[in-house]
């Protein structure tokens, strides 16, 4: 059961081990699906290298996050770390600007994960539209995406109502029905000889590639898009407050998920380009795995692939739903969002946050373009990673945190590594993804991203006002109680 706190926000329940945390995070390898055809459009076969480098980047970043997860075991991953480290202890004023920095980082992280629900609901609707022609006669793709979103969000809300432990069980089931076929689909082309290395070596980089400012900015933008997928296995650390033994469970879950992601991202992109060639991938940029399945398994393989991909998409929606709801709960716990968003049920599930996230994503589905939503979401992810890495540096140097026990410690000098990757995210990847968006999709995703991030400012000031009012009420209440006791003891003249 969740424990009630005096501030009206509930604590999460410690109920899972590292294998269950890994099961929930196993949806992360599927984040490659929206970008399988996007990266080769700019980098040809060198997209394979970018995926590998991005997962390695995740190892550097996540070593710092694993240390913070064990140093602050009650904090929910990236959102909780930054909020805890940047706040000012015993701050007497009304608005703690340092707390605003940590809260903005958490909000950015929330915006990075939350749109995954809309992105994959749109893809599910698109696949259903192509898989069942009768549905296409009755519903538009938008209507199918909206219906898919309502059904999937409702089903996941019902399953996760009973706690994270049951969510992990669903992760095991969906992993069996999606990741295993995905592995088969990736390995089979190598075994059957359908992968032609000349498709890779003959188109390693675009013929017009040059190391000028234009292409360097594109490269930074591509890294921002890639890390949105390939570094996202830090989600295994976000469940820090719900692991039975965070000191052991967090590093194990992160390491296992990282290894799986490395081989998955590299091999999936290699298989797709090896079978289809770069031109073949660009001909099917949204769903290149379908022609791969047709080439290896025939027409029946295409049907199996679509069904498998739909199951896989539900798994990543589950991962994002749980991660973003924990981020929102963490912000409410720290007083950076209204307290009502931190409410949990008796099973420790932040159900109010899950309802708000579901409604928000039903609105996002109306954008209709998964690439545009990814582009907007990547802006939030670069901000969250940059600020979180700077938070790690502050936690290593600030006297309030330097002496804290660290059951898991990153290698010596890791704060220098964190500074490098923090600067890589902010400002380099942020500038790159804004530039890339302007070239490919236009300015709409960029404006959506910045507007959503900017909305946090008025929400934060309202939350601080709410917290201040709550503190005043708590201070006045004992005085009122004392006055009432005194009134009972002193006779009143009639």
TrEMBL record:
Subcellular location(s) per record: Cell membrane
Principal place of residence: membrane
Any one Gene Ontology molecular-function term assigned to this protein's record: transmembrane transporter activity
One GO location term (cellular component): plasma membrane
Comp. bias intervals (Acidic residues): 481-494
Annotated region described as Disordered, given as residue ranges: 469-494
InterPro entries: AA/rel_permease1, APC_superfamily
Keywords: Cell membrane, Membrane, Transmembrane, Transmembrane helix
Superkingdom in the source lineage: Bacteria
Membrane-spanning parts: 21-39, 45-65, 107-130, 142-163, 170-193, 213-233, 253-276, 296-322, 348-365, 371-393, 414-436, 442-462
Pfam families on file: AA_permease_2 (PF13520)
Protein's name in the database: Amino acid permease
Organism in which the protein naturally occurs: Pseudarthrobacter sulfonivorans
């Amino acid at each position: 059961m969740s424990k009630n706190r005096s501030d009206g926000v509930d604590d999460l329940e410690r109920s899972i081990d590292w294998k269950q945390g890994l099961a929930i995070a196993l949806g992360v390898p599927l984040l490659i699906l929206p970008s399988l055809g996007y990266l080769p459009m700019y980098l040809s076969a060198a997209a394979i290298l970018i995926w590998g480098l991005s997962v390695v980047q995740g190892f550097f970043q996540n070593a710092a996050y694993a240390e913070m997860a064990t140093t602050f075991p009650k904090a929910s991953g990236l959102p909780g770390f930054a909020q805890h480290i940047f706040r000012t202890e015993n701050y007497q004023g009304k608005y703690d600007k340092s707390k605003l920095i940590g809260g903005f980082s958490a909000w950015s992280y929330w915006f990075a994960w939350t749109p995954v629900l809309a992105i994959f609901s749109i893809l599910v609707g698109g696949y259903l539209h192509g898989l069942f022609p009768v549905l296409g006669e009755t519903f538009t793709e938008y209507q199918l995406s909206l219906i898919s979103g309502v059904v999937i969000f409702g089903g996941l809300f019902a399953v996760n109502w009973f706690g994270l432990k049951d969510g992990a069980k669903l992760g095991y089931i969906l992993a069996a029905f999606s990741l295993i076929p995905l592995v088969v689909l990736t390995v089979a082309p190598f075994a059957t000889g359908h992968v032609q290395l000349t498709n890779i070596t003959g188109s390693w980089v675009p013929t017009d590639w040059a190391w000028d400012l234009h292409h360097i900015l594109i490269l930074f933008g591509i890294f921002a898009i890639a890390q949105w997928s390939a570094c996202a296995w830090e989600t295994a650390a976000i469940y820090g407050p719900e692991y039975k033994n965070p000191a052991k469970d967090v590093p194990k879950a992160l390491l296992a998920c990282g290894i799986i992601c490395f081989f998955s991202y590299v091999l999936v992109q290699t298989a797709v380009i090896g079978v289809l060639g770069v031109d073949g991938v660009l001909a099917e940029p949204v769903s290149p795995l379908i022609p791969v399945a047709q080439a290896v398994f025939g027409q029946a393989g295409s049907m199996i692939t679509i069904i498998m991909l739909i199951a896989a998409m539900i798994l990543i929606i589950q991962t994002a739903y749980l991660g973003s709801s924990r981020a929102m709960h963490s912000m409410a716990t720290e007083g950076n969002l209204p307290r009502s968003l931190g409410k949990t049920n008796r099973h420790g599930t932040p159900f109010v946050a899950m309802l708000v996230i579901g409604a928000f994503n039903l609105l996002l589905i109306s954008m209709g373009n998964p690439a545009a939503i990814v582009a907007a979401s990547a802006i939030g992810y670069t901000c969250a990673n940059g600020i979180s890495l700077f938070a790690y540096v502050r936690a290593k140097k600030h006297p309030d945190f330097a002496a804290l026990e660290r059951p898991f410690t990153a290698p010596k000098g890791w704060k220098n590594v964190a500074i490098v990757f923090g600067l890589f995210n902010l400002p380099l990847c942020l500038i790159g993804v804004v530039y890339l968006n302007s070239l490919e999709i236009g300015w709409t995703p960029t404006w959506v991203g910045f507007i959503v991030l900017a909305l946090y400012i008025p929400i934060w000031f309202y939350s601080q006002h709410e917290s201040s009012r709550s503190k005043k009420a708590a201070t006045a209440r004992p005085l009122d109680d004392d006055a009432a006791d005194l009134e009972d003891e002193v006779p009143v003249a009639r």
